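Most newcomers find our protein records easier to grasp once they have seen one. Sequence and backbone structure share a record, each on its own labelled line. Nothing more is needed to start thinking about how sequence determines fold. As an example, a complete record with its sequence and its structure tokens follows.
=====
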Amino acid sequence: QQAMRGRVTTAILLAAALALQGCAIAPGMTMDEPAELPEGQVVRVQTLTLDLLNELEARRETRIREVAEEFGFQRTEYLIGQGDVIQVIVWDHPELTIPAGSFRDAETSGQQVGEDGYMYYPYVGMIKAEGMNVAALRDVLTERLSRYIQNPQLDVRVVGFRSQRVYVVGEVNTPGVLPLNDLPMTIADAISLSGGLTPSAWKSGVNIARDGKVYEIDLRALYDFADSSQNLMLKHGDIVNVLDRSQQKVFMMGEVRTPGAVEIINGELTLSAALGEVGGFNQNTANPSAIYVIRGTDSENPRIFHLDAEFATGMLLAERFDMQAQDVVFVDTAGISQWNRVVSQLLPSITVIGVANSVAQ
């Protein structure tokens, strides 16, 4: 009966110890498939293969092509808008032309389009200039002035471009507002007019906000490899944001030698290079067949990629897998290491149970 009481006490104490240990049976982080998010969304792990790498590369090229088409070069005439200043010269009729001189430039002497889109001109009165190009405005002015002047000859031009603008912010030397004129403006023009990039700029992370959407372009491809598809055409209202490279990091976790953040330099960092930056995975505790990349943790469609690097062919795939900012790389623990940790965490509890047995006897 004494022995039975001791065995019961041992069982109760062991259960209590395990309950107190919580997840001690499986210490450390592991990756399961599938993983269910709190919102009920299921994310499945995709194994890195040559076909998957080709698919990712094809998707990237498709995105680049779609963005290039969205910002494609469209040669259109400048349309007059609110705030623009128009200069009208009627030849042989100086009384209808306010001259510009050394103390008065053309923009000061011109007619401004008001907030209602109308401009005033003598003999003609109010004209809805907004939405017209220069040629159309010239035709209207010529037709109305012909009622008072025989065969009027007009020169019409926009001397103050104030209605259309783009915004350049972030890591440029002189961020601010750039007016758009009758010449098309590209992303390279906008950055050049803003004083160029700062030393902290991330060339591969330039965002353009347009019509409620954000497009990411690769300036490094434009500057370093002359990829003209990245020299996008800007339009009124675009916001160009040059990101700070200090935020372009990959986070290395799990069984690596020196866990921490690795910076993406000049827009390039492969999975194999990221592992090399932290000294590789721990040969004694890591499971090289269980390396995971968690991507898009703050988006609606997060993804998890699995790399089996137990053989050399796995590292060849890792060399082709490009990392993205805020990726998390997790190297799982080998099975024997998990068991050793379980034992090491249970030893204090086993000792307590042994003492309790002695007391019970």
User: Anything to note?
Assistant: The two ends are 10 Å apart (CA to CA). DSSP finds nine helices and 18 strands in the chain.
